[in-house]
Amino acid sequence: MIILNGKVAAQAVKETLKAQVEKLNALGHRPPKLAAILVGNNGASETYVAGKVKNCAETGFESLLIRLDATVNEATLLQTIEQLNQDNTVDGILVQLPLPKHISEQKVIETIHPAKDVDGFHPVNAGKLVQGLPGFIPATPYGIMLMLKHFHIQTKGKHAVVLGRSNIVGRPMSILLSSNIPYGNCTVTIAHSQTQHLKDICLQADILVAALGKPEFVTADMVKPGAIVIDVGITRVEDATAKKGFRIKGDVAFQEVAPKTAAITPVPGGVGLMTIAGLLTNTLQAYLNNQKAK
Ligand code: GUN
Description:
Layout: E1 2-3, H1 6-26, E2 33-39, H2 43-59, E3 62-68, H3 74-86, E4 92-95, H4 105-111, H5 123-131, H6 139-150, E5 159-163, H7 170-178, E6 187-191, H8 198-203, E7 207-210, E8 228-231, E9 235-238, E10 246-249, H9 254-257, E11 263-264, H10 271-293
Parallel strand pairs: 1-11, 2-3, 2-4, 5-6, 5-7, 7-8, 8-11
Antiparallel strand pairs: 9-10
Helix pairs in contact: 1-6, 1-10, 6-7, 6-10
Bound molecules: guanine.
Guanine binds near residues 94, 95, 97 and 140.
């Protein structure tokens, strides 16, 4: 069994990006710039956004963090996005989700210009992904594809089972794995909360992607021996013995599942770090498209 170490794979992607940015700098060009909007102070969102900003700096990207109060009205948030859409020095825009209940996430997603939508959540980018056209792929599924590439995981003709059908992970992941692209070409089953005979379906998976947000949902009896297991879960579970009062749990019961697998991602230290690698790769692409359009 091998551990698919996200730190190692993400570092490799970041080194490549950093070298590309250094080349741009040497030619007298400005670096790529990501604008992140954080509404309120949800603990997990704070951590994710801080990670994105830190990784921008490490890779030579510029970043702009805009913090808005949890009580901000929807119109103000949409206006802020519009300003970033118009700002030629900003290549990528992301609004950290989830948002407070009084704000429509769909409206926010649709206000970000598709050419700056480095999260790949805009319907235009989602549609392009479905049709195999160039666009922005949501960062987590993109990061998983980069991880499969880094570790040379053979996917062609395999049966991939994706647990979860969210627009952020499950749905785009299923499309990528079924596409005729490197590290795609799988036969894909999407399973979700209404799926019957879930265990039987999971047992058929050569590649099992768990993205349902239920800590330790996938147990050893659901995994075929020799499967590749990708754990997308990152849930904070209260634990009085932990320093911060919580522990991060994946969707897979790692201890019992890992010995049965050919390869598995750990949590933390797996897919989470690849998400940032996917985001930065999209941001560089947005920058290059932006320069070409001038
Ligand atoms: N919340 C959970 N995952 C993501 C993500 O990939 N991007 C944004 N913007 N918010 C998220």
